[in-house]
Design a protein that fits this description.
Blueprint: H1 14-21, E1 25-31, H2 37-50, E2 55-59, H3 65-75, H4 84-109, E3 112-116, H5 119-128, H6 134-145, E4 152-157, H7 160-171, H8 185-201, E5 206-210, H9 215-232
Parallel strand pairs: 1-3, 1-4, 2-3, 4-5
Bound molecules: thymidine-5'-diphosphate.
Length: about 240
């Protein structure tokens, strides 16, 4: 079934849909390696744009010029010798720039922002499998996101062995795994469990998507979840630190 062929998903009435778009909507896509997030974000963006939604696709680490400058340092492994705390602070620095330069302005303009990875990746990769102190991670997260909590988070769940197989196939022969992909299967398994634990702890924000299914099936599930969330959304009160 093409869920978007049902006009009820965008409310059917143009005026009504416009009023619901005021204030924007921030959706993040999370999960392990090779879960198909990027493909699904592109497909969702295409379907939403076909419905005249104003959509911005972005990603982390990166998404703004400042954050993209930090991306290479993180994914090449150049920061790895300095330890997980150093990496966590760099991810947070990149996130802060991305939030203030790109995400918040877009949401305030009324756009729907689709972001490939965000704060939950730091909670899982740096916090859980990096073994960092939860209080430190919480403080860092607060500074980095400055109130910009996602309205909706889709957690793409897949057996890590299958995810890594997909990631390898996607890369092709020339490129090796990045800093995080190259870690052991046991670490990827802990990450999977940590993402599922976040979903369980925050059911009002998170939806778990079975990413092992066929891409077309996943696309329909994602589309239905996102449009249902847009239907029922309430104006979000974001707590932002006052500028000094
Ligand atoms: P990338 O190739 O951009 O994406 P993906 O794996 O989603 O296809 O790789 C980003 C890597 O950075 C990925 O291994 C997860 C990791 N990462 C963190 O460790 N912490 C973070 O906060 C973020 C955003 C990403």
């Amino acid at each position: 079934m093409d869920l978007l062929s049902d006009e009820s998903y965008d409310g059917g009435e143009r005026g009504q849909r416009h009023s619901r778009l005021t204030g924007g909507f921030f959706i993040t896509f999370e999960g392990g390696e090779g879960a198909g997030k990027s493909t699904q974000i592109e497909r969702l963006a295409r379907r939403m744009r076909a419905k005249k939604y104003d959509v911005l696709v972005t990603r982390e680490p990166g998404g703004s010029p400042g954050a993209e400058a930090v991306r290479h340092v993180l994914l090449s492994g150049a920061a790895e010798p300095f330890g997980p705390k150093m990496e966590a602070i760099l991810f947070a620095a990149a996130r802060s720039d991305h939030v203030e330069q790109v995400i918040r302005p877009a949401v305030e303009r009324g756009s729907i922002v689709l972001c490939d990875r965000f704060m939950d990746s730091s909670r899982v990769y740096q916090g859980v499998t990096g073994g960092l102190d939860p209080a430190f991670m919480k403080a860092l997260e607060e500074v980095a996101i400055n109130g910009m909590v996602p309205d909706l988070t889709l957690i793409f769940d897949i057996d890590p062995a299958e995810g890594l197989r997909r990631a390898t196939a996607r890369r092709g022969a020339g490129d090796g795994p990045d800093r995080f992909e190259k870690e052991t299967l046991a670490i990827h398994q802990r990450r999977r469990e940590a993402f599922l634990a976040i979903a369980e702890a925050e059911p009002e924000r998170c939806i778990v998507i079975d990413a092992s299914a066929d891409a077309g099936v996943v696309e329909n599930v994602v589309t239905a979840a996102v449009f249902a969330a847009l239907e029922r959304r309430m104006p979000v009160q974001r707590k932002q630190t006052a500028p000094v």
